[in-house]
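In this section we walk through a basic example: taking a raw amino acid sequence and producing a predicted 3D structure, encoded as discrete structure tokens. The instruction is simple. Fold the sequence below.
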Amino acid sequence: MIHCAGFSSCGAFKQAKAALQGMEALYRDEITVEIMEFSTRDEYREWLFANRAEIGAPNHETSPLVWSEKGVVIGGRDDTVAWCRAAFAPAGVSLPAPVTNVDSWNPQHEYDYDLLVIGGGSGGLACAKEALAVNPELRVALCDFVKPSPAGSKWGLGGTCVNVGCIPKKLMHTAAMLGDLAKDATFYGWEGGASATHSWETLKNNTQDHIKGLNFGYRVELREKGVSYLNKLAKFTGPHTVDVTDKKGTKSVSAARIVVAVGGRPTPLQCPGAELAISSDDIFMKNTPPGKTCVVGAGYVALECAGFIKGLRQADVTVLVRSILLRGFDREIVSKVHDALVHHGVNIIEGVLPESITQQPNGRLLVKMTNGMEDEFDTVLAAVGRYADTAGLDLAAAGVEVNPKNGKIPCHNEQTSVPHIYAIGDVVDGVPELTPAAIQAGQLLARRLFGGGNEVMEYEKIATTVFTPLELGTVGLTEEAAIAKYGEDAVDCFLSSFHPLEWSVCEDNHQGTTCMAKVVVNTKKDNAVLGIHIAAPNAGEIMQGLAVAFRKGLTHKDLVGTVGIHPTTAEEFTTMTILKSSGVSTENKGC
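The resulting token sequence is shown next.
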């Protein structure tokens, strides 16, 4: 993908645009050109100054600006024309060498370590281990210290995903799904499933046992690979020096290169009594069942927790939503997730926040809401977002710039404003907060720093799934984002509304719930696929395979030209022929 930005009346922009579009016509299989054309010079310059540093051209001031999808800058008109001419040479098309953003490094330095990783989550672990994999002679240390949550919860090595995120969430989601399947089993001839009861203690204990095994395994793996594990709290004292503290005291360590991978923590509520609420840092290790629960928030953490708590047949679950559910996800797909939550018995109240939380004499929590309503709950779960856990690092002492609005670190190819200090994962400003993204970014960074690699992390075209009762899988642009980027006249969607075959004999249990598959296309480019979305069981498993094809580039014709696996839910993507703009019903009544 080649991007070209400029303003309409600029002659240089017109020439670069024409050259690139000619190249696209000649090399259709190798090159896709995206034109960002601004009406005026002022509009272009406003955009340029806001985005050029992130693109990798911090000093670029003219029109056009041309760069590749990987953030490799081609340059202005002259550079672009020269690049296009080079395509006609016998060697064919070749992009400029990637800008890998690697500092100059003297292996003969006098610091304690070649690499110090601060943070023992998925990204930090991956980076430290990969560094030694590419160069076993390195001196690598990993510093990790878990500060207890306000409710007192604490955990071991592995970060949010392993301890209080993806892993326990998926296990509890699975437990809730088994409860749903038990109800469906009656229709398949099994007796007694619908009356099954659930033991929170059993699930919690088994989940925590699995996590503790992972914690131990990570420590063993670090030792076997030669990483020095420092179970200490880190704080910068200079560009190359860090104080590390535990209950025994504080000592100073130094490193030639430092990677910040401290992740984030849940944002607390802002109302009287907020300290009475727990968060996702606490729910998975809660000793007693959550019972009647008020979940505050509308993101994936809030809805996933609400879904599995209700699915475990605890008690009533109410979700307080400030504005809309799952902001940033495709609205049409989100509506199916909403309907499924309501069908499962989750009470969703929109446009409302807690005004106060008060503990009652009976131990329950009285939540007064901004709409005048009030109710008592056993548990209040705050899931209103996450903040970067950088405040205690004293990044200023090392000279690292931080976004004052969110505490995150602006980076280019994981390099901060200080060349030898890098950041990966949720602390990086403007990148997806996803475990697999942090892992891959950490591995690629280690290869560039110590293994001579030149591959940089691509943060576009990353798939993800929301593990609500009806799962949501997605990759690429939503319909709304595609229209904003390409214009309404260039965007349409292929849709299919359906019930999976598995529901066919137990329809009574799924009334009011409909699955949906959606493919967003660019109608002006042979229905090139811009985004793929689904709300259905096993959405994560389905989306993982489609994400590979999407990353390589595909059209709607490629999808429907693929012979489906029958009968499966994923097969829907190979049979979708109804465009949203046609007005024809998208309901699939076949097998």
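Looking at the output, two observations stand out. The CA atoms of residues 498 and 590 lie 9 Å apart. DSSP finds 13 helices and 26 strands in the chain. In the next section we compare this with other chains.
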